[in-house]
Amino acid sequence: MDWGEAVGWMILPIKRYFHFGGRSRRKEYWMYFLFTIILGIIAGIIDVLLGFGSAATYAEPGRIGASATSSGPISGLVSLGLIIPSISVAFRRLHDTDRSAWWLLLIFIPILGWIALLVFYCQEGTRGPNRFGQDPKGANLTEVFG
């Protein structure tokens, strides 16, 4: 996969912002996940550089460092803008494993629910069509990115 294709997979959920139906491949989900992490780090750095958000600094004998203790407005806006596509790609990823989006409620069960969702997100989707649509692995890339 070249850089252009990787970026295409990263932003595909943004293009499908309010699309809660259908199916999403593991590649789409995990590339978007990586995109949100990168964007969050960049937003956090911008917040700190602009003096927003607080960063705790500490100095102890033999140790000097800093850690972010809260996010600033840029990070908050980025997070707010990514809520809907994050939920929609999670719905579609669950659909690809032939599960209802109701399974996303497992997120409210600490640790065990998170582990279950992680397993679901890592599982290969059902081969061929399922009740949520056609197999996205069988789709032509121009259909996906077009």
Write the layout of secondary structure elements.
Blueprint: H1 3-15, H2 26-49, E1 55-60, E2 63-68, H3 73-96, H4 112-122, H5 141-145
Antiparallel strand pairs: 1-2
Helix pairs in contact: 1-2, 2-3
Structural overview:
With 146 residues, the protein is mainly α. The protein has one domain. It contains five helices and two strands; from the N terminus they run H-H-E-E-H-H-H. The longest helix is centred in the first third of the chain and has 24 residues, at 26-49. The mean pLDDT is 85.
Principal-axes geometry comes out as globular
Q: Which strands sit side by side, in order, in the main sheet? A: 1-2
Biggest sheet architecture: 2 strands, antiparallel
Query: What is the number of beta strands?
Result: 2
Tell me, rounded to a whole number, the average pLDDT: 85
Strand content: 5-15%
> Helix/strand-derived class?
mainly alpha
- Poorly predicted runs of 5 or more residues: none
Strand-and-helix sequence, N→C?
A: HHEEHHH
Number of domains: 1
- By oligomeric state, this entry counts as single chain
Instruction: Report, as a whole number of angstroms, the end-to-end distance.
Output: 18 Å
Measured as a percent range, the helix fraction is: 40-55%
Transmembrane segments: 29-52, 72-91, 103-121
Pfam family, one: DUF805
Keywords: Membrane, Transmembrane, Transmembrane helix
InterPro entries: DUF805
